[in-house]
Amino acid sequence: MKTEPIICVDKLSRRFGDFTAVDQISFSVERGEIFGFLGANGAGKTTAIRMLTGLLRPSAGEGKVAGFDIYQETESIKKNIGYMSQAFSLYTNLTVWENIEFFAGIYGMQFRDIHQKGKVLVQQLGMENMASSLVADIPMGWRQKLAFSVAIIHQPKLVFLDEPTGGVDPITRRQFWDLIYEATSSGITAFVTTHYMDEVEYFDRVSIMVDGRIAAMDSPSGLKDIYNVRSMDEVFYQVARNQSPLS
Amino acid sequence: MISIRKLYKTYKGAAVPALNGIGFDVRKGEIFGLAGPDGSGKTTLFRILATLLEPDQGMILMQDMDVVREYRKIRKIIGYMPGRFSLYPDLSVSENLRFFATIHGTTPDKNFDIIRPIYESLEPFKHRPAGKLSGGMKQKLALCSALIHQPSVLLLDEPTTGVDPVSRKEFWDILEDLRVTGMTIMVSTPYMDEAARCDRIGLIRHGQIMALDTPHGIIQQFPKPLYSLKAPNIRKILPQIKDHKGVDSCYSFGNSLHITLREGYAPERIFGNHGEMCRTGFQWDQIQPTIEDCFIQLMHTHEN
What we know:
The complex is a heterodimer of chains A (247) and B (304). With 247 residues, chain A is α/β, with parallel strands linked by helices. Chain A has helices at 45-52, 74-80, 96-106, 111-125, 140-151, 170-185, 220-227, 232-243; strands spanning 7-16, 19-29, 34-39, 60-65, 68-69, 81-85, 158-162, 189-193, 205-210, 213-218. In chain A, helix 3 (96-106) packs across helix 4. Chain A is globular, with a radius of gyration of 18 Å. Chain B folds into two domains: 2-219, P-loop containing nucleotide triphosphate hydrolases (Rossmann fold, 3-Layer(aba) Sandwich); 223-288, Alpha-Beta Plaits (2-Layer Sandwich). With 304 residues, chain B is α/β, with parallel strands linked by helices. Chain B is elongated. The two termini of chain B are 36 Å apart. Helices cover 33% and strands 26% of the residues of chain B.
């Protein structure tokens, strides 16, 4: 039996005045997938993500995210997804524990659950002795683990990772991918953007946006075959260049 | 051109120093790259170079002038592009340019030649507010604003962070064109692949330089053979390989693993047809390290 995709959009569009930022994109993401969402700056990625996360109303098209309608049920979407962006999106002048409480609260968890779940989380991460340290004072690798764990503390089915590894050292970057794999093997779907082309090889499938449209979508090896090149770097270059010779 | 000597800086209330005795020289006319992760001290060093912050200890000479004492003179010869968007979002492209020219006592027309190749792609948007430009355009305008007074030293703090690979490549092409004019360029980046385009690079971590050389020289310093291993479902066997007693380091690089071995171990013995870990579909090769491999190796040896 085929289950319903976790994300399914059809001809999704968004216009700002006479500028079309997202132009009729259609795609679906299966449960448990690591889906890469790539594109040049200004290609429409951020606008698309804002629509998928219930923050921006589409101009046209249809879509469901985590089973909820992107027009009518945006509040339910927000509660059923996790979101983590570049630079780990933690408050560095709050302690580890305060960050856990804050984000769990934002995701709508009850006070009692936060306390329980938070304790388990701190234990699982091995951060008992850091719980009352300011996030500013804990090493990068720990921050990253914490940020990711906090983004999925409410056990969402889908997590959006928007350039999660930007500016991170190469070892921590790889450890982060170990976390993503662990989460997706337990059924979470990861929707990821990155500017590191080597990371694209970790994706199950990749889409590349150019000028508001999805210009290419396949597995990394599929894309390399289609464009007859050896690296994802070259695929990106060809897709971004060929489709928009003016930029 | 720039001599940095034993620079220390600890921010008030911080547990660890941002700069921890860092020192090196930048030669006239070179592109010097500083590659390292967030929090390694790159921005602190740039802010001190740009006379916006004083070090606790140590000194910097730029064209034989002391960066702290002679900051007014230094400000005339440097162009600084901070990591964060530094333009006035409400001013248009041309107004921003005029503003930055005016505070340096010049006009956009006077030094237009130097920015011409970069400004061409901005020209159609010259009346648009800077805050409404795309990421790549903002970056180009910030570069024009840093260049408008024709500085002899250009300081670029992470100009390509968050920028897509195509725009990044174009930006580096621009830097190479600027180098031809004899300008000294110091640039920081978290992307190790970009470091390969510099004349010389320093790998920075915890406020110290781990290694400094030409990209080729850095790669030559890699201490042992590096192997690439490919296999079906490679993520699944990664923990086993990491735990093997003959494996010194093992990190994923896209769809392959990059591995170094401990003394006395040959790859045949572990991955070969009769090896201890042989699996169907294993493919291994000795490979040339990248800058990223070198950075990982240095972190690895510093930590163990």
